[in-house]
Specification:
Layout lengths: L1 E8 L8 H24 L13 H7 L6 H4 L10 E12 L5 E14 L2 E14 L2 E14 L7 E7 L2
Parallel strand pairs: 1-2
Antiparallel strand pairs: 2-3, 3-4, 4-5, 5-6
Amino acid sequence: MIHTSTIVSTGATAVFSRSEQRVARILSQQYLDAAMRSPLMVGHLGAGFAALFNDTARQQVGVGSPDHLAVTDDGSALHATKMHGVITLHAIADPTGKVVAIAAALSATATGGSAHTSRAGELLLVPHAKSWLIGGYDLTVVRDPGNGAAPTTTTAKATP
């Protein structure tokens, strides 16, 4: 995965600390691993998937929930052999310069033979206790079975 980061502040000079960047990169990567890599390469959601989300977002992404198929590749028929992606972090600071949210823009593609799945959009990372969780998302996933059938597109959006 390729990672880059920026910060936006409307007031005081803001600092997107290395520790905040590290936590945000790890959380974003854990999401891609649990929601996309594990289902497409192993056949089921990765361990700890639900724990990546705050309580509100978790209700929207669970099995059988409205956004489950856009946020995960759970139940996909694709057996991926390769996956690559890019994560770009954008910290959002309040007028005092404190980072209050992080937008993790992501783009990832998994392939297996001629079939592929691509997911793009943003995860909104929000403070939780002394760390961060996914509190919102705006994602689009395109699944191309690679057999001549038309690709399908699924989108989901949730804000805290």
